[in-house]
Amino acid sequence: MTQQGLKTIRTPEIVAExxxxxxxxxxxxxxxxxxxxxxxxxxxxxxxxVVALKDIDLAIRRREFVxxxxxxxxxxxxxxxxxxxxxxxxxxHVLAGGRPLWRDGARDPETVGRLGIVFQDAHLFPWYSVxxxxxxxxxxxxxxxxxxxxxxxxxxxxxxxxxxxxxxPRELSGGMRxxxxxxxxxxxxxxxxxxxxxxxxxxALTREKMNLELQSLATASESTVVLVTxxxxxxxxxxxxxxxxxxxxxxxxxxxxxxFPRPRQLDVEAEPRFQEIxxxxxxxxDEET
Amino acid sequence: MPSREQLMKYLPWISTPVLIAVVLGLWNLAVSLGVSxxxxxxxxxxxxxxxxxxxxxxxxxxxxxxxxxxxVAGFGIGLFSGVxxxxxxxxxxxxxxxxxxxxxxxxxxxxxxxxxxxxxxxGFGMTSKVIIAAIxxxxxxxxxxxxxxxxxxxxxxxxxxxxxxxxWQTFWALEFHSTLPYVFAGMEVGIVFAVIGAIVGExxxxxxxxxxxxxxxxxxxxxxxxxxxxxxxxxxxxVLFFAVNVAKRLMxxxxxSVALKDIA
Lengths: 289, 264
Prior knowledge:
The structure holds 2 protein chains of 2 kinds. By secondary structure, chain A is an alpha/beta fold. Helices cover 36% and strands 25% of the residues of chain A. Chain A folds into 2 domains: 183 residues, P-loop containing nucleotide triphosphate hydrolases (Rossmann fold); 69 residues. Chain B is mainly α. The longest helix of chain B has 38 residues. Chain B starts with a helix and ends in a 5-residue tail after the last helix.
């Protein structure tokens, strides 16, 4: 990923507003990008009902990188889907940029339009080429074909998919597909990226590489990121705050500030303080069982 | 040294002539071992009967044309109605539940048993054959479309939902493309069934079509001609199947069934 490439996805407005200044994401910016207020979620089935989430309060600041960590079944994916407006909470409110995501049981399209989602599986459309997949959100927004494909090619360069613009998704490796899915989510400059274990299916080496790229991408695009992961190391490496969830019912067990300077390199994991944070979270996770 | 992939590509072009040669060899052997020429005429005789048949103008302008029109018209009707009924039943769950027992009942009826009925209703002309061809083509297409409409990936639906896609946008960007492979799978079965329907219809009534020619040669106990007509039928079926297959390659080049370069 080149630095020039990264610049292309900034909107002029944001650059002007921030005066081109970079600051650590969680400094004094109190502005809230996303907020869960007293959110609970129950799922009902024939075998009874399950409380997936109970009384969740969480405010995510603008340009903050938040990781949701926990075991399988602790409700982290449900939480992300609620943040994304894909699942309606049983109780409580979801606010995005101070506006409610749901109104009278329907999603507010304008608010949803400022969220970009990357799923565990890339979910690219096999009938579209890579560039058409990346341009799909713009197509749905009525952006003219030439313009949206030009933008898709820019994004291909940004996420390291140059030369594969015309390929079909099945011709790509798992890592490349996930890059394309990220590019698709970035295509409309959503401001908030919601990611559900996006690299969960990748091998460890590719995963480390993708994490580094995700970090620089998030910084460069000045996005707020919520990342769901089951890896404590990954959460601590990437996040400004790691939110640990405990299962049945899903609750917030702890919130840990991680303030290593950015950009973080892989050797940050060797630092004693990094390992101590990981150990603490690990212990909290183990207490549950 | 050609790669394995290249070999796979050319394999059918080599294996097909070899297989044909083997079949012709066994056939000749059987004839020379004393199988009656009335039951199994030698390949040479069938070949000259085929040439004679192909020189008869009425074989093309009347018989081949009739069967072709019946099969294609029946297939067209079966395709149109199959896609519509399949899409509606796929989407309207209660309706599908309501009519399922009837659909199953209709499906298990040997449809060719209905041919005499259609002859009574619609006469000895083309209409009855077109209808039987349409009915035979309808079921595989309808069932595949029904399955296709239900098989849209929920993850893909989530993507469209997260992008605020409207009803029509979701249809054109997702459901349409996602269902097409199923439509073509149904069409590939349906076109073969349509030819069967047309031929069986011709067996039982009328005086035109390749099916009629089969009956005529049978009545004359003319085995070489019978074989020749069957070869023409095989060619007709192959050409129609190939046409559907080409349409599939053009419409869904992204699909695995096309990408694997399976021979038509």
